[in-house]
């Protein structure tokens, strides 16, 4: 096969790509409770939890909440980041925390979306990931 060993290795991709182990259900429930309690304390509106287990490879649950202003969303994201870190979650990843309509926090097995009302309606994640949509698609 032509090509250098380095080129062949780059085409083949990473060897033995390891994924993080899934959290046990009890730990996942505690993490979810921590997140929803923190959001509730920060006056988030319409907190929704969507079970993604068996439906998505990137997470087992998704939490969606609404904040009314950029500052509120930024504060919610900062508080969540701090609480997750205190709970032992080393590096929750955060996107969009610089004053946008949507902040995403990746807490491993749980993905958190913080939206302004208009952006939440525009993207419609609840509808996209609803169990009812799966049921109608199978018929």
CATH level 1 class label:
Alpha Beta
Number of helices: 6
Morphology call: globular
C-alpha end-to-end distance: 47 Å
CATH architecture: 2-Layer Sandwich
- Structural class, by secondary structure, is alpha+beta
The CATH topology is given as Beta Polymerase, domain 2
In angstroms, what is the radius of gyration? Answer: 18 Å
Helicity range of the residues? 40-55%
Mean pLDDT: 79
Count of domains: 1
Taking the sheet with the most strands, its summary is:
5 strands, mixed
- Counting DSSP E segments of at least 2 residues, the number of strands comes to 5
Write out the strand line-up for the largest beta sheet, numbering strands in chain order: 1-2-5-4-3
**Share of β-strand residues:** 15-25%
Provide the low-confidence segments as ranges.
Answer: 7-18, 133-139
What is the N-to-C succession of helices and strands?
Answer: HHEEHEEEHHH
The CATH homologous superfamily name equals Beta Polymerase, domain 2
Question: Can you describe this structure?
Answer:
The chain is of the alpha+beta class and 139 residues long. It has a single domain, classed as Beta Polymerase, domain 2 (2-Layer Sandwich), CATH 3.30.460.10. 44% of the residues lie in helices and 19% in strands. The protein contains six helices and five strands, in the order H-H-E-E-H-E-E-E-H-H-H. A five-stranded mixed sheet has the order 1-2-5-4-3. A hairpin with a 3-residue loop joins strand 4 and strand 5. The termini are far apart. Residues 7-18 and 133-139 have low confidence and may be disordered.
């Amino acid at each position: 096969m032509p090509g250098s060993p380095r080129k062949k290795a780059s085409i083949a991709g990473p060897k033995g790509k390891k994924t993080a182990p899934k959290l046990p259900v009890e730990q996942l429930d505690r993490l979810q409770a921590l997140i929803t309690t923190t959001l509730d304390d920060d006056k988030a509106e319409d907190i929704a939890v969507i079970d993604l287990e068996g439906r998505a490879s990137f997470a087992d649950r998704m939490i969606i909440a609404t904040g009314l202003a950029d500052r509120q969303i930024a504060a919610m994201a900062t508080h969540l980041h701090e609480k997750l870190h205190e709970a032992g979650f080393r590096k929750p990843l955060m996107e969009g925390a610089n004053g946008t309509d949507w902040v995403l926090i990746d807490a491993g097995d749980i993905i958190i979306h913080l939206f302004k009302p208009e952006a939440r309606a525009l993207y419609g994640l609840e509808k996209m990931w609803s169990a009812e949509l799966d049921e109608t698609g199978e018929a």
